[in-house]
Design a protein that fits this description.
Blueprint lengths: L2 H21 L13 E5 L5 E6 L4 E6 L5 E8 L2 E6 L78
Antiparallel strand pairs: 1-2, 2-3, 3-4, 4-5
């Protein structure tokens, strides 16, 4: 049996099951049927694969060569999105990430770049830690302003060296 025929048969089975669920529904929606696995062909020879086991459900989008482009793992703690090699998010006007806590980790490096000004604001303290801190003003001043004291603590404080 061809993949397309298998996919069509799976779709018919899912649709028949959904029709039964909807026909038997009362005021409370009935749970949808659970499939062990389903596979669907998409545009450009891409595929969508849905797998279910006891611990999680996984929805995978596969490229034409079989590489995983996106996998959505639905776990008890919530969904986890895993992407293939790269991820690009584009928003023509504004992108907002909002949460109680946000953590960004780069195994090798993290780069933040702005075509204009860059503002870092904290309602409380700002902490930066590194082996060496390099601050460079490519054109203009380095301005340090404090409401109270400016403290420089170092083994040696070198000025104009």
């Amino acid at each position: 049996m061809s993949k397309q025929a298998s996919t069509a048969r799976t779709l018919e089975s899912v649709n028949d099951s959904l029709d039964e669920v909807l026909a038997a529904s009362t005021d409370r929606p009935a749970p949808l049927p659970r499939l062990a696995a389903a596979e669907f062909d998409l545009t450009g020879r891409q595929r969508l694969v849905l797998q279910h086991d006891r611990n999680e459900d996984v929805l995978r989008f596969l490229a034409a060569n079989g590489d995983v482009v996106l996998a959505i793992h639905v776990t008890e703690r919530g969904p986890v999105l895993r992407f293939g090699r790269t991820l690009t998010i584009e928003a023509p006007e504004e992108l907002v990430l909002e949460s109680e806590r946000v953590s960004i980790r780069g195994c090798e490096s993290v780069e933040v770049t702005s075509g204009e000004d860059l503002h870092l604001t904290a309602a409380r303290d700002l902490h930066a830690s590194a082996r060496i801190h390099n601050i460079t003003a490519e054109l203009g001043n380095v301005n340090v302003k404090a409401n109270d004291d400016v403290k420089l603590n170092g083994e040696r404080v070198l000025v104009n060296c």
